[in-house]
Amino acid sequence: MTGKRGLAVCLAGMMVCLASGCSVRMPWVSAAGETREEVKETAANRLEAIKQLGELRIGISADYAPFAFETEAGEGEFPYGGADIELGRYIAEELGVEAEFCEMEFDDCLAAVAEGSVDMVLLGMLPTSDRDSVMDYTNVYYRPGNQVILVKGTQAHKLSELSDFEEKTVAAQYGSLQAQILAEQFPGSYPEFTEGVDEAVLKLRLGIVDGAILEEVVAEDVIKEYTELVISKAALSYTPAEPVGVVGGVVKDETELLLKVNEILQKVSDEKLYFDWLDTANKQAAKVSRPIP
Predict the structure, then answer these.
(1) Does residue 94 fall inside a structural domain?
(2) In whole angstroms, what is the distance from residue 260 CA to residue 257 CA?
(3) d(CA 205, CA 212)
(4) Gyration radius (Cα) of the chain, Å
(5) pTM of the full predicted structure?
(6) Strands across the sheet containing 16-17
(7) Which residues are CB-neighbours of 154 under 8 A, at least 6 positions away?
C-alpha cells in the first residue's frame, strides 16, 4: 500500500468514477426521480437509503495490487480488478443492490467517506487512530502474511542482513504496513515512498532504489515475472500491539450499515472467500504488471 496513504484527510476533489453521477456533491437521480440526498433525508438510515437507491457506492484507489489495480480491459469493459473489487461486489450482492465503484486518490477516498459522498471504502487499509476519526472500521477481512525485501540478484550477497541496507535506499508503498516496517526497521536507510507496488519494483529494476519491501506472496509473483530480482535473506518482522489486519471503512455512525457489512464479512471469513479472490487477483496482477520500456 503507498504515496497516497497519508493519514491526514484532505478535501475531496473531483473523482473519476465508473458510473454517471459518481462524483463529489453531484446529485444522483434514482429511478423514482428523487435525488440521492432526498432519499437519504427520508430513509431511516443509510442502509435503508442504499436499498432504496439500489446502489452501494464504494471508494477505491486502484494502485495497490492485489487489492485493487487497473487491468488491461477492452473498451467498455470494467477497468479494475483485485480482491477488494470482488469483496465490494459480494457485499453489494448480499445487500441486494449494485456495486458502484468510485476510483480516486487514497486521501480523496478518506475525505469522501468522511463527508458521506461514498457509503464505504475498500482500500487495502490498515486501521489507525487518525483514520478512525473520520470513519467507522469494519471487522478485519484480511491479515497480512510474511514481509520480505526484494533486491537485485547481483546484489543479494551484499544485502543479506538488515544492517547491509544502512545508507541504502529502500522503497515501500506509502501508508502501508511495508512503509511502517521501513520506518521502524531501517533507521539508517533512505526511504523512498512510492504510489504503488509496481512503482517500487520499477525503481528497483532501474537501480533507483536498492531494495523494495513487499508482502511475500506479492514478491514471489514479482520474481516470476522479473527473474533478475530475488528475495533478500534479511529477516523482517512486525510486532503490532494488536493483530494487524486490513479493514474497510464505513460512513461514521451508520450503525445499521456497519453491522450488516460485518455480518457479510463474517460469511466471507467463514467460507474463506477472500483468500480465493486474493489468489486470483495475484495471478491477474502479475499478467498486467507494467514492463520497463
Answers:
(1) yes
(2) 5
(3) 10
(4) 20
(5) 0.64
(6) 16-17, 98-103, 55-60, 120-125, 247-250, 136-137
(7) 228
Q: How many residues does the chain have?
A: 293
Q: Containing domain of residue 164, as a range?
A: 147-231
122 plus 254 within the same structural domain: yes
Q: How many domains does the chain have?
A: 2
The answer to whether 205 and 126 have CB atoms below 8 angstroms apart is no
Grid look-up 430513509 returns 43
In angstroms, rounded to a whole number, what is the distance separating the alpha carbons of residues 69 and 85?
9
Answer whether residue 293 is part of any domain.
Answer: no
pLDDT 10s digits, 158-171: 999 999 999 999 99
User: Per the structure block, which three cell numbers stand in for 275?
Assistant: 483468500
Judge whether 240 lies within some domain: no
Residue 113 sits at the vertex; the CA angle it makes with 40 and 171, to the nearest 5 degrees, is 165
**Which of the listed residues 231, 259, 274 is the one where a domain comes to its end?**
231
Q: Are 132 and 169 found together in one domain?
A: no
Specify whether the CB–CB gap between 260 and 47 falls below 8 A. yes
pLDDT in tens, 126-163: 888 888 889 999 999 988 778 899 999 999 999 999 99
Q: What is the CATH number of the domain that holds 61?
A: 3.40.190.10
Distance, in Å, from the CA atom of 181 to the CA atom of 177, rounded to the nearest integer, reads: 6
Evaluate whether residue 189 is within a structural domain: yes
- Region of 93 (left: φ > 0; alpha: ψ -120 to 50; beta: rest) is alpha
